[in-house]
Amino acid sequence: MRTPTIKTATLLVTAGFSVAAFGTARAADSDSNPGLATTTTVAGVAPTAAPTSVAGDTTTSAVPVGGETTVPGAPPAPASALPPAATIQQFQALLVPAIGATTDLIGEVAALGITPPPGIPTPDGTVIDNLYVYYYPDAEDTDRSYYNAKLVFTTAVPAADMVTLYQTQMVAAGYIQSGDSVQNEDGRQVRFLDYEVPNSTYDNAEISIGIVDDDLDFVQIEFSDWLDPTVIQAFSSWPTGLPLLDQATEIESASLRVDSFGGDYEGSIDTNWVLPIAIAELRPQFDAALPSSPYTIDPDYEGSESSVYLLGGEFTSMSIYMGEGYPEGTSYYNVSARFDLQL
């Protein structure tokens, strides 16, 4: 199942910002938000056009095989360091250096199997607190294969100056501004800047920048573009020894995440598999194979016929969800696990 991406951003929860309000603001336009600014003047920058909704959703995109995001004069993004059949240790080794202080904001996620849009500026004093990369491969129709990535970070630059920074440097890098809106909540202001990506072969390639003006200013940058569907093979062998994965015929989607909790960091991996097992047989086969695996059922959580919570391996927690698949006679098998990250 494919999920909404840029139009329903919900990650700006740092500093207590309302998730619901953020999602509403991103999806709204000036008609549905009376009292919000329709044009905004920033010192040294010409007034922008009235806020506009970004057309399209990545779930209906079409892009040719081999597509990539390019901006005139920009260098190519570095190659992915995400190997096929990656281990949890290899995932951790790539996630840890992507968090924290950086002078190359977008370059930090290039090793995670995606080609980020180049030329997005990194403000002075940038510290990445949260990152998320969602992979939606389509091996049969590769022009529908895409990713969605999000970065949440703080900087040493005040929010008003960050608006100026992005409005000027994004255009200078070749991006086309397609949206500008403002949302106010409890004395905090969020400015949303949206950009089209010229020369991208992915129809819905775009960048959304949310800048929060509060006691603690912070930013979320979200972007989507074409995905090489072979990248999904990085998720083919985790978690080691989990029952039934050796029978999987397809990985529908996957994600890598890092979340910050008051200075502590937690990584997570989520993968959706297709198993050639009828749903009526799936749980009995899982239960029969579990004793020979490194995992045991967590006694502190009440599961169900379709879900189970596990302990074991390198993870602080793991959950399995089993559902009826398509076509008939197959099953949907979701595996989600969390682990600590030591920065």
Protein described:
It is a single chain. Strands 1, 2, 3, 4, 5, 6, 7, 8, 9, 10, 11, 12 and 13 form a 13-stranded antiparallel beta sheet that branches. Mean pLDDT is 79; it is low at 1-78. β6 and β7 (218-226) form a beta hairpin. This protein has helices at residues 19-27, 88-95, 159-172, 279-289, and strands spanning 100-101, 127-136, 146-154, 176-185, 188-196, 206-213, 218-226, 250-261, 264-275, 295-297, 307-312, 315-324, 331-341. With 343 residues, it is mainly beta. The chain has four helices and 13 strands. The chain has two domains: 6-39 and 60-230, no CATH class; 240-341, no CATH class. Helix content is 12%, strand content 32%.
Keywords summarizing the entry:
single chain, 343 residues, mainly beta, 4 helices, 13 strands, 32% strand, disordered N terminus
Nutshell version of this structure?
12% of the residues lie in helices and 32% in strands. It is mainly beta and 343 residues long. The protein folds into two domains: 205 residues, no CATH class; 102 residues, no CATH class.
- Measured distance between first and last alpha carbons: 33 Å
Percent of residues in β-strands: 25-35%
The computed structural class is mainly beta
Q: Give the helices and strands as they follow along the chain.
A: HHEEEHEEEEEEHEEEE
Give the count of structural domains. 2
Largest sheet: 13 strands, antiparallel
Number of helical segments? Answer: 4
Mean pLDDT: 79
β-strand number:
13
Query: Helix share of residues?
Result: 10-25%
Question: Which word captures the global form?
Answer: globular
List segments where confidence is low: pLDDT < 50 over at least 5 consecutive residues.
1-78
Radius of gyration from the CA trace?
21 Å
